[in-house]
Amino acid sequence: MLFLRSGEIFGGVAIFAGAPYPGTVLTLEPVELLALKREVALDLLNRYPELAMAAIRRRWRADAPSTGVDTACAGRV
């Protein structure tokens, strides 16, 4: 089970794998959701590499506490 906060992203693996997202999502309160088709997401990442880097950094920072990696040196785009 994974709890996400406002502004967090899920399903990114499905974009690169070319497969459906392997999980289901249940919200605890009303949400606004933005869904992007794979082709649109890949086009955006190709056009704006800084967007891709920001997503990687954000994901890295989210994973860091569980891996023991120090996030103090993480940069911003």
Number of helices: 3
Uncertain parts: 67-77
Q: How much strand content do the residues show?
A: under 5%
* Count of extended strands: 0
Structural class: mainly alpha
Radius of gyration: 14 Å
Order of helices and strands: HHH
Shape: globular
Distance separating the two termini? 29 Å
What is the domain total for the residues? 1
**Major sheet details:** none
- Estimate percent helicity: 40-55%
- Mean pLDDT comes to 77
Q: How would you concisely characterize the structure shown here?
A:
This protein is mostly helical. It is built from three helices and no strands.
Describe the 3D structure.
This protein has helices spanning 12-17, 38-47, 49-67. The chain has one domain (12-67). The protein contains 3 helices and no strands. By secondary structure, the chain is an all-alpha fold.
Question: What key attributes describe this structure?
Answer:
single chain, mainly alpha, globular
Detail the topology: elements first, then pairings.
Layout: H1 12-17, H2 38-47, H3 49-67
Helix pairs in contact: 2-3
